[in-house]
Specification:
Layout lengths: L2 E4 L2 E5 L6 H4 L9 H6 L17 E11 L3 E14 L6 E12 L9 H10 L2 H4 L2 H7 L2 E7 L6 H9 L8 E4 L5 H5 L3 E7 L4 E7 L5 H12 L4 E2 L9
Antiparallel strand pairs: 1-7, 2-9, 3-4, 3-8, 4-5, 5-6, 6-10, 8-9
Helix pairs in contact: 6-8
Length: 234
């Protein structure tokens, strides 16, 4: 029986969070860069967070569907303060947005994701990525985290999850090996007042990935079509 290796990498930093421009994590190194940039979670609120205000990007997530080259979804949660009708009073809260490939009909839901990635590799399509994305089965959604039942709790569960799981080697049954040979990967970044934590690893692992999956399940009934510009339009 072959021994297959699963690798999870966590980097914890205890310094003041740098600017997004200097801190940005490329969601994938091997995928088609225009498509990956469209799913860059740092783009989700780009231009919406006001400098010098309490606005802040709290959580970003990028998840692939297969081999870290076929995007599955990106998600971001920001703390935002918006003006109200009462002068000098803002309405503050946590807002979540996600760009995701619509669920597929095949057993693993990969068909649309792989098709989108394949078409983006075509130079003719890469030159007109916006049209390609417009034609793709993508969902651009928004949710009020505080108004969603247990939304704040689910978000905070990511913060207190295990950001430093053991790196391990596991024996896999033959029927499960394809899942590991073509792993879907996830990258998570969460920023507090003085600390930024990052996780990179298998999307179905415990710890932070499990907390992100629970967050997604919690927000699912609260998603509504977003009216703000889509990430690739920013």
């Amino acid at each position: 029986m072959a021994t297959l290796r699963l690798l999870a990498l966590v980097v914890l930093t205890g310094l003041a969070a740098p600017s997004l421009a200097s801190e940005r994590i490329p969601p994938a190194q091997s995928g088609p860069s225009p498509l990956i940039r469209a799913f860059d979670p740092d783009r989700i609120f780009a231009g919406d967070l006001r400098p010098g205000s309490d606005d802040a990007l709290i959580l970003t997530v990028f998840a692939s569907a297969r081999d870290d080259y076929a995007p599955d979804y990106s998600l971001a949660i920001a703390y935002r303060c918006l003006p109200t009708e009462i002068a000098g009073r803002d309405r503050c809260g946590y807002v979540a947005r996600t760009l995701r490939v619509a669920p597929g009909e095949d057993a693993y839901g990969h068909s649309l994701r792989l098709n989108l990635s394949g078409r983006a590799r075509d130079p003719a399509n890469a030159d007109d990525l916006a049209r390609l994305l417009d034609e793709g089965a993508l969902q651009w959604l928004e949710a009020d985290v505080g108004a969603c039942e247990r939304g704040i709790f689910a978000m905070d569960s990511v913060r207190v999850a295990d950001w430093n799981p053991d790196v391990h080697t596991a024996l896999q049954a033959v029927e499960d090996r394809d899942v590991i040979l073509h792993p879907a990967l996830i990258r998570v970044r969460m920023t507090g007042f003085y600390t930024t934590s990052r996780y990179e690893g298998w999307v179905l692992a415990d710890g932070v990935p499990a907390a992100v999956r629970q967050l997604g399940e919690t927000l699912e009934p609260c998603w509504r079509p977003a009216t703000s510009p889509r990430p690739w339009e920013r």
